[in-house]
Amino acid sequence: MAEKTNLQVYPLAPATKQPRSDEESGTLSSEELRRKKRIKLAIYIVVFVVLQTIVITVFALTVMRVKTPKVRLDSTVTFQNFNAGNQAQPSFDITFETQVRVKNTNFGPYKYDSTNATFMYQGVTVGQVIIPKGKAGFRSTKKVSVTVNVNSKALPSTTSLGNELGTGVLTLNSLAKLSGKVELMFVMKKKKAAEMNCDMTIDLSINAVQSLICE
After folding, report:
1. What is the pTM of this model?
2. Closest CA to 97 of 163, 63, 146
3. What is the chain's mean pLDDT, rounded?
4. What DSSP assignment string belongs to the chain?
5. What's the CA angle centered on 145, arms 141 and 148, to 5 degrees?
6. Among 84, 94, 175, 186, which has the minimal tally of Cβ within 10 Å of its Cβ?
């Protein structure tokens, strides 16, 4: 009878993982660094574009936005000559000093041409004064001193004047229109017309301005 041969089975040894060569590791490391740099660069570009868009938008809405200057009479009035009648004998002849203020809120000067300021009583011109050619600087107010004489000589009727003088007040309306240009960045110029419309009420009992309302 043949003898049985005892065969012992040994498990296979796990395959040994071969370490990467220095050259292969260096290549992968360089590619990873380049990838990270490209990502950072893309982020920087996006952030820059967003910031530039914000800056341009703010610049367009503030600096480059042209606003219409404002023209107003100053509330400080100094009377030099004051003659006003009464209800029975209605008339007036008044001379006073004041200022016309040209307020420019733009980021550039406003240059305007010479014009007239007209003073009216119930739609009739009772006085005029010249506002000379000038310039209101960058975000500033130009103050123009004027001497105004108003009188009732041109009134076709003094009936309503007598009624008002009987209440102790005299109301005048002043109008003016400035034509000029706002200059931005020393390059862009835009035409702007500034208008004045003010109502002045004079208290005859104390020879002073009671109220001044400008639109």
Report:
1. 0.72
2. 146
3. 87
4. -PPPP--PPPPPPPPPPPPPPHHHHHHHHHHHHHHHHHHHHHHHHHHHHHHHHHHHHHHHHTTS-----EEEE-S--EEEEEEE--SSS--EEEEEEEEEEEEE-SSS-EEE--EEEEEEETTEEEEEEEE-SEEE-TTEEEEEEEEEEEESTT-S--HHHHHHHHTTEEEEEEEEEEEEEEEETTTEEEEEEEEEEEEEEEETTTTEEEEEEE-
5. 135
6. 186
